[in-house]
Write a sequence for this structure.
């Protein structure tokens, strides 16, 4: 890869981040930004390494991992309050069920990835979901919800049509009782600080990095031992397929001295077309909703299993 001068490129954080930063100048470019999942070890190592004197690295958060913090925080809140004798979950109206936690997480994730211009704007977007969820007829809190006839807020949508807003009961699938909302609010406040939101303004994710890793593991599974040559070969083939599709693999095979005929090319084109069609299909709202339902059902099954077994069989740092 021939680059003239030094170009500024963002780096998707990996376990070899510090190594990559240290040798980037040899290849005529430099990294400026780390997209992190919350683990600061690599970032601290880069700061100590100081590969570009006078130009400190900028750390940004992966919006997917930030959204997971809300889910974890709400689940831990339920457990902590239960030990104190306070029940936030259950089947009562306004209780903090696992399905409701999944909805709040999806709304938080959508807003935190919306690429806002300022921390104030992003915080307003994130807190409006909580306000909308705990609104009641006596105290509606929809002032920050989107306006207009296409608004997702039933209250603002009714106003846009010139109608009297309907009662709140049964209108919001993520309704949270005011008592529960007061317990939940500190979790939202912790996840809407200036320090955190300033690293989320561009709405960056590690999806591309995770997708590349998945292709590498398909060719070289993590649970099986492999030598260095096989790992390098799997990584090279994954990068070729990730950047150029099947055409990249065909070029790789051709460079290795193997013939690529017309049948191989046409088959690769069909596989690329199928992959694109599947990716577009996964963006449909109906399939997104279905994936959320499956995720919630899987979590409930895991909870039931842990209850029968007397506790989790594995937890980070627990054993």
């Amino acid at each position: 890869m021939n680059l003239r001068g030094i170009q500024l490129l963002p780096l998707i954080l990996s376990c070899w981040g510090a190594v990559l930063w240290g040798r980037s100048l040899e290849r005529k470019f430099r990294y400026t930004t780390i997209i992190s999942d919350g683990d600061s070890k690599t970032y601290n190592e880069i700061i100590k390494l100081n590969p570009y004197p006078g130009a400190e690295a900028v750390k940004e958060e992966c919006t997917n991992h930030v959204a997971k913090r809300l889910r974890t925080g709400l689940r831990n809140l339920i457990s902590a309050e239960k030990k104190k004798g306070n029940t936030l979950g259950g089947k009562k109206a306004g209780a903090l069920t696992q399905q409701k936690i999944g909805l709040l997480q999806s709304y938080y994730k959508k807003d935190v990835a919306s690429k806002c211009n300022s921390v104030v704007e992003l915080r307003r977007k994130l807190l409006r979901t909580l306000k909308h969820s705990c609104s009641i007829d006596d105290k509606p809190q929809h002032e920050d919800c989107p306006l207009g006839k296409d608004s997702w807020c039933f209250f603002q949508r009714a106003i846009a049509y010139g109608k009297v807003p309907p009662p709140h009961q049964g209108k919001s699938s993520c309704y949270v009782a005011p008592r529960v909302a007061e317990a939940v609010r500190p979790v939202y406040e912790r996840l809407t600080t200036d320090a955190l939101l300033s690293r989320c303004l561009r709405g960056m994710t590690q999806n591309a990095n995770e997708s590349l890793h998945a292709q590498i593991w398909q060719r070289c599974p993590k649970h099986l031992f492999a030598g260095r040559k096989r790992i390098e070969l799997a990584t090279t083939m994954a990068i070729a397929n990730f950047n150029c599709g099947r055409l990249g693999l065909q070029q790789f095979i051709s460079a290795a001295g193997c013939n690529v005929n017309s049948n191989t090319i046409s088959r690769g084109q069909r596989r690329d077309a199928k992959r694109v069609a599947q990716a577009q299909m996964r963006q449909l709202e109906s399939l997104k909703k279905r994936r959320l339902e499956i995720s919630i059902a899987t979590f409930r099954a895991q909870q039931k299993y842990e209850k029968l077994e007397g506790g989790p069989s594995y937890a980070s740092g627990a054993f």
